[in-house]
Amino acid sequence: YIVSTHDVLFLEFPEYFSKLYRIKNKTLFKHGANKADIVLTGSLYSKNKIELFLDVKNVYYTVYGIDSVFFEKYNKLLIKQEVLKKYGFDNYLVYISRHEPRKNHFRLLKSFLELKLYENYHLVLIGDISIYDKSFFHLLSQLEEPVKNKVVLINKVPFNEMIQLLRGSTLAVYPSIAEGFGLPPLESIAAQIPTLCSNTTSMSEFEFFGDDFLDPLDMEELKRKMKNKLNNIDLERQIELSNLVAEKYNWVTAARQFNKIIKNHFN
Questions:
Q1: Residue 45 and residue 52: Cα distance in Å, rounded?
Q2: Which phi and psi angles does 117 have, rounded to 5°?
Q3: 92 strand-pairing partners
Q4: For residue 61, what are the CA distances in angstroms to 28, 196, 209?
Q5: For a Cys-Cys bond, which of 39, 89, 151, 240 suits 122, CB 3.0-4.6 Å?
Q6: Which pLDDT belongs to residue 233?
C-alpha cells in the first residue's frame, strides 16, 4: 500500500478543529499509515509531524506540481476590464482559501480596515466557508455599508473564474496560521502576482519569499508589509519568482522523487 497523507494539522492545532473531527481522523489516518508500506506527503514539515503524531517511520515527501495554467501569459489590462464588468471592481487584494479560523481571515480584514485600504481597493476572499469564523463575521457585521461593500466573499467560484480573479488582482495575501503545504501562494507566484505569505508551518519551506514572508499573528507586520508591497510593485521580481516555482514545483520533479522513493524503499 502507498497512502498519501496531506497533513495532521488537526492533531497539532486541535483548537481549530472539532473533537469529533480529531478523533475520527486520528483513527483513520493512523490505521492507513500503519497499513501502508509508504506514506507520502508534500512537505518536510508534514513528514515530521506525521511521524510524530501518528508514531510511524515510513513517511516520505515529494513536491507538489503547480498546474501549467498558472504560468500562462495573459493581458492584465484586459482581465481587469473583464473582472470589472462581471464583478464591479478592478483594484483589489485577493485571498484564495476556504474560510475557517486558522486561515486568519479576521486579521487580514482588520489590517485592511486599519490601513483604510477600502478607500482605493476591494478585499476579495475566494473560498467556501468550512468552519464558521465568529470573529471575522462579527467584525464584518459592524462595518458601515460603504466599507462593507468593499469586502467581497465569493463561494463556489468555477476554476476558470478563479484564475481570472487571481490574474486581475493587485496583491495576493496568504496569512494562514497553519498549512500542510500551501499551494495557493505558489499558484499566485506562478501567475506573477505580487504575493505575501505566512512564514509558519510548511510554508516556511518557501524560502524564496524572503522579505515577502510574514508572521500571521503579528498584525503590525501584516499591515506594514501590505502597505509596502502595494507601494513597491516589482514586476521583474515576480517574473523571477515565477520561474523559480516552475523549476521546483512541477509534476516531472515530483514523479522522479516518487520513483526514487519506491526504488529505495523496496530494494
A1: 11
A2: -70, -20
A3: 122
A4: 20, 25, 21
A5: 89
A6: 87
